Structures are given as structure tokens and as C-alpha cells.
């Protein structure tokens, strides 16, 4: 799904580059949703969420790097930055371990772990977040940042793996192995509305560059080529 992934495959299996085709993934227009104030209020009341809040969505497997995100958020807490950190994801063994880790950190009382949400609830929280944070160490593509862009939410993400390739200039980047850098960028994006507005505009244009239809057409071309149907 990305040139970054293509490079991994070529290196791992010793394949000629021309044997591997990149077909970018995309995000549905469903994420361009009108503001649902009634549902937002219900979710905020249910999970005790207050503005401003950062949002992460996804699983809590080790490569997602969420312990460093929690440590970075605790650094913000230490210097008096008022915000919440909301995690959306199924409470499997990795999330349970992560919550146990979070309980021993200083910013725990400002963290929210929602478990799984239905699509309208997730989309509503995403569209109203101050910033979407994605600290992953390794991705093949990385759909969640594009979902945030489609939702009109600024993106803060890792400067590694495929994420710069996917997000382009429409995100603010940090070193995912440096908690101080993560914290500094979170603080910057929280306090700089002009930066957030710029990233929102760039993000909306960026996500439109990806298309499931285009991906399907390019995939079909590969199948036809292999079968000698071209």
C-alpha cells in the first residue's frame, strides 16, 4: 500500500522492484460528517470528556508506541497543560496492560479509555478532537491519520515508516522514540490555533488525493497483467 512497504518487501524477498506495485489505500467520505452536538454531548457525559482533548484510535500492540504517548502526556501534565488524552480501541490484553501502565503515571486522571465505539460515536469524537495523535513506530499505510484529515481534525504523527509518505505536509511530525519531542509537539499544536487551522486545510486536501476506486482499478490492472489479459 506504500512505497515504504514496497521497499520492505523488495529487501525481504530479494524481488525486482518492477515486480511490486504500490496501490494506495484511502478513506471513505463517510468521515466528512456534520457536527452532531447531541451525540457529542452524550459521549462527553458518558466518558467524562472535556475540551480540549487529544485522540488516539487503534489497537494497543507494542509497535503502536502508546506507552511513550502516555509518558509524553504526563510531561504535559507536569507543566500544567490542561487537556485530556482519549484512547479509542478494544480492551484486549494489550489495552488492559496499557491501562495498568497508565495508572502508575502522573497524568492518569486526565486519560480516558473508551473501549470499542460504533462508527457514528468514533467519528463524532474524532471530528471534535483538538488533535489526533498517532505515535506508531511502524505502519504499512496508516488509515487513521487520513480519517482524521477527512474529519477536519489536525494530525500529529510519527516521522517514521510510511507516515510521512501518506500524510505529506498535512501533519505535524515528531520523533516517536523521544517522549520530550512528542510532548513538545503536543503542546505546540494545542496552543497554536493558526497551526491547527493550516493543518486542517492541508489535511482535507490531502485525504482527497487517495481513492478506493483508483486502488481497485490499479489492482485490477495487476491481475490482468499477470493473467496476460492486457
Characteristic terms for this protein:
230 residues, alpha/beta, 6-stranded parallel sheet, 10 helices, 6 strands, globular
Task: Characterise the protein shown here.
The chain has a six-stranded parallel beta sheet with strand order 3-2-1-4-5-6, sandwiched between helices. The model has no long low-confidence stretch (mean pLDDT 95). It is of the alpha/beta class and 230 residues long. The chain has ten helices and six strands. Helix 3 packs across helix 8 and helix 6 packs across helix 9.
Write the layout of secondary structure elements.
Elements: H1 3-13, H2 37-47, E1 53-57, H3 66-78, E2 84-88, H4 93-103, E3 111-113, H5 119-128, E4 131-134, H6 143-150, E5 155-158, H7 163-167, E6 172-174, H8 179-191, H9 193-207, H10 212-226
Q: How far apart are the termini?
A: 22 Å
- Adjacency order of strands in the biggest sheet: 3-2-1-4-5-6
Helix content: 40-55%
Q: What ranges have pLDDT less than 50 throughout 5 or more consecutive residues?
A: none
Number of helices: 10
Q: Structural class, judged by helices and strands? A: alpha/beta
Global geometry: globular
Largest sheet: 6 strands, parallel
Q: What's the number of extended β-strand segments?
A: 6
- What's the mean pLDDT score? 95
- Note the beta-strand portion: 5-15%
What is the C-alpha radius of gyration, as a whole number of Å?
A: 19 Å
User: In sequence order, what are the helices and strands, one letter per element?
Assistant: HHEHEHEHEHEHEHHH
